[in-house]
Design a protein that fits this description.
This protein is of the alpha/beta class and 368 residues long. 34% of the residues lie in helices and 24% in strands. Helix 1 runs parallel beside helix 14 and helix 3 packs antiparallel against helix 4. The longest helix has 23 residues.
Amino acid sequence: MASKILVIGAGISGLTLAEQFAKNNKVTLVEQRNHLGGNCYDFTNQAGILIHKYGPHIFHTDFPDVWQYLSRFTKWTNYQHKVLGYFDGQFAPIPFNLNSLKILYPQSQADLLAEKLIKKVGLNQKVPILDFLKAKDQDLKNLAQFVYDKVFLEYTQKQWGLKPSQIDPSVTARVPIYVSRDNSWFQDKYQGMPKEGFARLFEKMVDNKNIEVKLNTNYHKIKNKIKPDLVFYTGALDRFFNFKYGKLDYRFLRILFRTYPKKVFQPAAVVNYPSLKFPFTRITEYKKLTRQIHKKTTVGREYPGQTGFMAYPVNNLKNQKKLKKYQKEINKLKKQKIYFVGRLAQFKYFNMDQAVKNSLDIYKQTTK
């Protein structure tokens, strides 16, 4: 007998669950926003340019099953993501690599440092910036301090509103020195952008007579009217428990979009501005992500803070203590067959492919 499945939240985690369960069940998908896809949503603006409403999202994965799964709903535009940083009037690749070294250092010094880096860690290896600060070689230590100050320190303060020492190492590890001449941000086997955009991909995922989509709907206002057999909650964890142990902290983002009457605005799709001289962290030029041809261009400047939309869970000791308390509450609900899935519900940073993989795995576990 088919079950009645309730999925709360139509981000990429919830969409994957809804699509999978709809093969053999009736699914109700509830979303409080007016669109599918959560923060991955994109749309065409008034100028006719496809932009990402909540900042740039580039799909990349090393999971063949995730790539094959999403390829059922979209064709892909080949795109290799490369990011530049703006340093005292110069553009250089980020993550900081051997090409960055060549741009920002005198040639003889750059050659010496490159030789030492390759000898110490090997070519095409990534090392967290904090590890290099512990180096015994003074030249490498000086380089690490330069990268730390120019690339990492002030950017981190803007992005998180915290000192680097207050951030969990799992976050700082995402900002490495890359001992390579490869300027690609990702090295995953599969990379690309959905040919018709993310929103169209999401629409195809729920194009199933077994899925009822309810947009502009607050689950907490209708939960007593629905009697499902299984519930998958992908919303904010603390909100589900009515903030019983206090709010879990998130870093919010505001994005200010502007369209310019010219074809090109900047030399890369994304340019980071690490210095505190700039109030924003980065500028994205969306045409460069989507390969759209247009006589105008739209860019988005990102301003992290406590206003805007929820973007990143703050993984520090204070929040980890709260999270453990909420996880105990989750354990009490096991008999009620309520599952907490995704970045908000698990209070954990997921890339898009990780979110899809996580949902596919949970579907398999719950349908054995």
